[in-house]
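Good morning C.,

I know you're traveling, so I'll keep this short. The sequence:
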Amino acid sequence: MPSVPPASSLWDPHVHADRRPFLVARGRIVTALRGWFEAQDFVEVETGALQVSPGNETHLHAFATTLSTTDGAKSPLYLRTSPEFAAKKLLAAGEHRIVEFARAFRNRERGALHHPEFTLIEWYRAGEPYGVLMDDCVAVLKRAAEAAGTNRLSFRGRSVDAFAAPERLTVAEAFDRYAGIDLLATLTGGDEPDRDTLAHAAQAQGIRMSEDDRWADIFSRVLVEKIEPNLGIGRATILDEYPSAQAALARPAADRRVAERFELYACGVELANGFGELADPAQQRVRLEREMAEKERIYGERYPLDEDFLAALATMPQASGVALGLDRLVMLATGASRIDQVLWNPLP
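The C-alpha cells, ready to paste straight into the viewer:
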C-alpha cells in the first residue's frame, strides 16, 4: 500500500492553533476597517485581478498567463500588481470615493514582509486634497489597533503608539537628517537627476555602489540603508514629497522637483504609498514608457501599457489615492513576526 505524503506543517493542528489568534484578529481588523470606510461614504468595489497590463513600475514583477478564446485565438494577460489602473477607470466613470480590499500578485517577492499573493486596501478620493489621505492613514492605524485590542503596533522589538500624531518629514529632510545628503541639490528639474552628485555624497556615507548604478539605484540604496530603519519609531512617520523621478504616477508638487507622493511607516516598515494622482495622459504615457525602458535595461522584459487606462485619464477628475498593505498592518497590530502568520492559506 503506498504511503501517504506528509501534510504541510501549516495544517498540523498544533501549528494552526499557534497561528489562529493572528488570523481571527485579521478578521476583526478587516471588519473594523470596512465599517470605517462605509462611515466615510466610500463605495467598496471589486475590480478584476486579470488585466492587460499588470502595472508599469520598473522593479515590480508580474505573473503572466494567456487568454484562449473558443476560436483558438490567444492573447497575453497578467495578474495585477495593484488595482490602480482599474480604480482610476472607475473615477473617470464618475465614482467619487472608492475602496477595494484587493488581492494583488507580485513575483520575485518572498520574505518576512513579502508574499507573492497579498491584500492591498486601496482607496481614492476624487476632488479632494492630497493631504486628506494622510489623515485617512492615521485613522486606519487607530481602527486596526482598536480591533486587535491594543494601542500599539510592534515588529521585531520596535513599537509605535497607534494613537500618537505621526511625524511628518519630507524625503529631502530625511536624507539630510539620517544620511547627511542634500538631496535637492541632485534634482536638476530634468528627466534625469544628477547621478554623480548623489554618488559622491552617498560614497562619503559608506554606501556601496557600482559604476553602472544610476541615480535611482543610489537613491533606493540610501533610502533602504540609512533612512527607513529610522522611520516610524515610537510614532508613525509620513515621508512626503518624493523626487518626481521616483513618482511616475503622481502629479508634481509646488516645487516641481518633487511630487505629491508619500509613504507611511511604522516600526521601520513601509505600510502605505499615496499619491496626488497624475491626470495628464500624454505625460503619463511618457513616464510609463520610461519605466518600461528601464525595466528592459535591467531585467530584459517589459509589460504593455493599458491603453484603456490612458484614455480614461483624459476624463478622470483630479483625485488622490493610496494603497496600504493589509497583511503588514495586521502583522504590526498583532505582533506577528512573519507575513505567513497572518495569511489563512500561504504558499508552502
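Safe travels,
E.
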